[in-house]
Structures are given as C-alpha cells and as structure tokens.
Amino acid sequence: MQTVELYTTNTCGFCHAAKRLLTAKGVSFAEVSLNAQPERRAEMMQRANGGRTVPQIFIGTTHVGGYDDLHALEAAGNLDALLAG
Length: 85
What we know:
This protein is an alpha+beta fold. The chain has one domain (4-84): Glutaredoxin (3-Layer(aba) Sandwich), CATH 3.40.30. The protein is built from four helices and four strands. The protein has helices at residues 13-24, 41-47, 67-75, 79-84, and strands spanning 4-8, 30-33, 56-59, 62-65. It is globular.
C-alpha cells in the first residue's frame, strides 16, 4: 500500500472528513498538523504546486489535492487502485 500523507489544521472540517474517509477504508496515514508545525506550510505549498488550503493529500508521489478530490476518487472507484500503487 502507498504511503498516505495529509497536511491539516485542527479546525478544518474537510481535514476531519478526509481522515474519516481514510480511516473507514482502513488506510493508515501520516498527518502533518500545521497548527503544531506551522513552519511546514511552505513545504506543503511547494509539494502541492502552490496549494494553500488544507487538507493537502498525497498518496505515494501523487498529489491528490483536497478532500473533494479524495472523495471524487472514491466515488469514481479509483481510490483503491491509487492506494495499491
């Protein structure tokens, strides 16, 4: 299974939704809290091609985008294949 990374903040509803979706699928993920580590925002923006909003989700080397993008992958039936690599 691919490594899954999320950049999040504590008060972001979409961040919580992304974590719920992944948890419901049994997917473990690494979370970078920008509340706890605000210095990592620049890293996030570089990896996300300038994306400033959270969550920013990465599966392996693929930048998925935000929660809407993650949900769209799941709805289309493509998330499992991406997770499997």
